[in-house]
Amino acid sequence: MGFGEILVAGQKVDVCNGDSWQRIRHRDDVSDDFLADPASIGAFKSGGGKGGDLMAFSKCGQYIIKELNKGDHEALLSVTESYVQRVLSGKSLLVTLYLHYLELGSGRFFMVMRNLLRHPGPYIGLYDLKGCADDKTLERHGRKIKVVNKRVWHVHMWCGDCAWSPDRVVYHAGKVAARELSITVTDKQRNAIMERLRSDTAWLAQQNLMDYSLLLAMRKMSREEFDRDPTATWARRGGPSELRQPLLHVGEGDEAMLVYIGIIDFLQKWTTGKQIAMCLKVLERNKATIPPHPYAERFFDHFSRNIQGGAQPLDALAQDAAASRPSEKMMNFYSCVSFEDEALKLGVETPKASRSSTQWWSCFSGICGR
């Protein structure tokens, strides 16, 4: 370890494989002192995972700083060079990492990743998908879904859904909807996604990694908002093989549909502990804890079925927004749709353009730096 002098929140840190991470930062025009300001990072909170590792967002919203446990730290060390080559190829859905470092005062390890979601919520839908029983809905029509797991020590939850709390009912309905989710993109976007997904899952299996997720977010944008949004304009200017995000297609009427998609949480190695966990969960069906190669095959097969083409490319809109020059910073979007969707019982699907579809209304306010 050791790479010059890099500051994170005003403190010098010891960087792991610094030359490698610098290559990715330079490609994306991210300076080495991008988090040097003590005021650049928000408060650390539990990331919500089983390990309880801490996570924080940069104040600008572009980066996520996540604490690494011993296993994740060692996994990242072992795959750094191969991962960097994959990301620099431009042919990967893996979330982009920019830094891996040791906090000298505490002895804790952290990584810094790009926030995949360049537009703030709320979202039509936000999902954590594994292609198995662990799929979940995180947000639906701007309504965040509270996680209520059915752990073995929650004895009452195993006595039937009549004993479930309202939050558990909504959470379970979201899991069912996430498993049945149909993701609609354009034909060219689907081809590019599946090419990357095939390559990424093969690489993950080769690296003995499993339990990763596909993060998916969907957001609508009015034509007026789209025309002045620099991120949407930048994404539209990319060629179909480049797969700039957000992915864009025609929504209802004159609206644009924005789709974010990427692989996250990919540092879980297949260990003896995982093998024991698989045995303990022998009665669970379609579980997440399976060896890397079967996990990769199931992951790819699931999304090859559930990611569908057929959406209308945004270029079909009458006016060419790509030719316009953005004049404002990215706007924050606030959905005003009703949240009364009966605990998600109808399931969720990426909306397609339809004259008969229910009208969506929105209001937006606030400025967020890009």
What does this structure look like?
The protein is built from eight helices and 19 strands. It has helices at residues 18-27, 70-88, 166-179, 187-206, 223-227, 230-237, 272-280, 292-306; strands at residues 6-8, 11-15, 45-46, 54-57, 63-68, 97-103, 108-114, 125-129, 136-140, 143-144, 183-184, 209-210, 213-221, 247-250, 256-264, 268-269, 307-308, 331-335, 362-367. Strand 4 and strand 5 (63-68) form a beta hairpin.
Which features does this protein show?
8 helices, six-stranded antiparallel sheet, 2 domains, 370 residues, disordered C terminus, Phosphatidylinositol Phosphate Kinase II Beta, alpha+beta
Strand content: 15-25%
Instruction: Give the strand order of the largest sheet, numbering strands 1, 2, ... along the chain.
Output: 1-2-6-7-5-4-3
Shape: globular
The end-to-end span amounts to: 32 Å
Number of strands: 19
Order of helices and strands: EEHEEEHEEEEEHEHEEHHEEEHHEEE
Q: What is the overall pLDDT average?
A: 81
- Computed Rg: 21 Å
Count of DSSP-assigned helices: 8
Percent range of helical residues: 25-40%
Secondary-structure class: alpha+beta
Largest sheet: 7 strands, antiparallel
For the record, the count of structural domains works out to 2
Low-confidence stretches: 151-159, 316-370
GO biological process, one term: phosphatidylinositol phosphate biosynthetic process
InterPro entries: PInositol-4-P-4/5-kinase_C_sf, PInositol-4-P-4/5-kinase_core, PInositol-4-P-5-kinase_N, PInositol-4/5-P-5/4-kinase
Keywords: ATP-binding, Kinase, Nucleotide-binding, Transferase
Domain PIPK: 1-307
